[in-house]
Specification:
Layout (H helix, E strand, L loop, with lengths): L1 E3 L7 H17 L1 H11 L18 H19 L77 H8 L17 H6 L11 H8 L13 H19 L45 E3 L1
Helix pairs in contact: 1-3, 3-7
């Protein structure tokens, strides 16, 4: 078993190892495959077909497996590396440690929002976004959205989400008005105080604001914290379970689109029920 640490607790050496491993996965071509995978399964309410990743009950288990796959790629490069988490309720300014030049780099410059600092700056020559996936070859950010300031969710927002004892509710999509899943993912609840995953993507802006959001390495630290919140919710509500537990009725418009507990999710053919626990693989410290 290995540990996932708070990014603020990483040593300088741990940061360098992580950055070096990410850059190596990028050089190998695998990183762009992870970006393509996320784009492929970013399916909205308005689109047709199954959608395991977003606006759906399997948001948490799908991303848990997605992070594990990426983490395995990193650890194949350096077995000492794991994905740290970014607690955006504490490190909630543009001056937070993860935006340092020796780690993720900072915000984008005015105009085109191109990131100019850090190891993932285009001018360093190591981080070119794939043509056809994005409009620009460079990583873009607009931290805090200065033209229309946005605040990151607070600890109180997180607590409100964690107190909801129900995992998810019908209609099992972006319009679900209650339930822990959408209180965190943050679609129908976006105008209320909530622990809002979407707000964090929009606060970073640029490359993080679309379906190709893993183009920004901040994606992995953000989603590691989302995974930790799911872990905390499970511990806070030991009698609560993933919903829907069974296949939806034949007349339910979401049947065949959302994934009940034991239905395997693409692309790994792994069911949510197989991802309820991570204690044998990693732990949060």
């Amino acid at each position: 078993m290995y540990s996932r640490k708070n990014q603020r607790d990483l040593t300088r050496t741990e940061k360098k190892r992580l950055v070096d491993a990410i850059l190596e996965v990028k050089r190998s071509g695998r990183y762009d495959e992870f970006v393509d995978l996320h784009r492929r399964y970013y399916v909205t309410d308005a689109e047709t077909g199954p959608r395991p990743a977003h606006m759906t009950p399997s948001f948490f288990p799908w991303h848990r497996r997605y992070l594990l796959e990426f983490e395995q790629a990193l650890r194949a490069v350096d077995s000492r590396v794991s994905i740290p988490y970014w607690d955006w309720t504490r490190d909630n300014t543009t001056g937070a440690s993860l935006w340092a030049e020796d780690f993720l780099g900072g915000t984008g410059r005015p105009g085109d929002r191109q990131v100019m600092t850090g190891p993932f700056a285009y001018r360093q020559g190591n981080w070119r976004l794939r043509a056809g996936v994005t409009d620009d070859p460079f990583l873009r950010r607009n931290l805090g959205r200065p033209s229309a300031p946005l605040e990151l969710p607070s600890a109180a927002d997180v607590e409100r989400a964690l107190k909801d004892p129900v995992y998810d509710t019908a209609p099992w999509n972006s319009t679900s008005a209650t339930g822990f899943r959408n209180r965190v993912e943050g679609w129908a609840l976006r105008n209320r105080a909530t622990a809002n995953h979407n707000t964090v993507h929009n606060w970073i802006g640029g490359s993080m604001a679309g379906a190709a959001s893993p183009d920004d390495p901040a994606f992995w630290l953000h989603h590691a914290f989302i995974d930790l919140l799911w872990d905390r919710w499970q511990k806070a509500h030991p009698r609560s379970r993933y919903l829907p537990a069974r296949a939806l009725p034949a007349d339910d418009p979401q049947r065949g689109r959302v994934y009940p507990l034991d239905q395997p999710m693409p692309p790994w053919d792994v069911a949510p029920s197989q991802l309820m626990e991570h204690s044998g693989i990693y732990r949060y410290v």
